[in-house]
Amino acid sequence: AQSVTQLGSHVSVSEGALVLLRCNYSSSVPPYLFWYVQYPNQGLQLLLKYTSAATLVKGINGFEAEFKKSETSFHLTKPSAHMSDAAEYFCAVSKGGGADGLTFGKGTHLIIQP
Amino acid sequence: DAGVIQSPRHEVTEMGQEVTLRCKPISGHNSLFWYRQTMMRGLELLIYFNNNVPIDDSGMPEDRFSAKMPNASFSTLKIQPSEPRDSAVYFCASRTSGTGAYEQYFGPGTRLTVT
Questions:
Q1: Which of A33, A62, A91, B78 is a plausible cystine mate for A105, CB 3.0–4.6 Å?
Q2: B8 near B108, Cβ under 8 Å?
């Protein structure tokens, strides 16, 4: 069974600072991993996905994530935070190798301080 | 494309009443998913369909919950009878099964309040 752990329910950074959101996964098969963002009262929007093509994945809005099999991690980073990045971020793993439903982490609320 | 469409966006009902949530997936997508989001449990997969056929309903919490997909462009999630603990945001998502196209596209959600 797959599972995802997101370390830190809340992360606060200053505008312009590095953003690092942590995600560790557990999977019995090669995983497909995703980062989604949710703005208040909205649905989820895909930021980026890992599907084994490359370990460093670039997404929208300047975000990227690196898949590290040895550490079972898929941390999300952005070099310079912007006020508009304030949102809830979810890491997710697919159950059946990409074709099935997603198992989500608990989410990390990103706060940007001016 | 209009994206995934869900209705209603908000629903307030009394305990014991029947509730029906509706979803129209993105045209051409052949997989549809229902998720529930609560503060306590986060985002949970309830059920998903491939080509209108339910594949995995292990996340459906109780027999009070049922989901149907009569055709490729419409799905419903029904709760009968509803209970206060069903209060949550319910999301519908759709996906195409083409090569590499594994991302799910989410609707705006239906916020359900059961009093």
A1: A91
A2: no
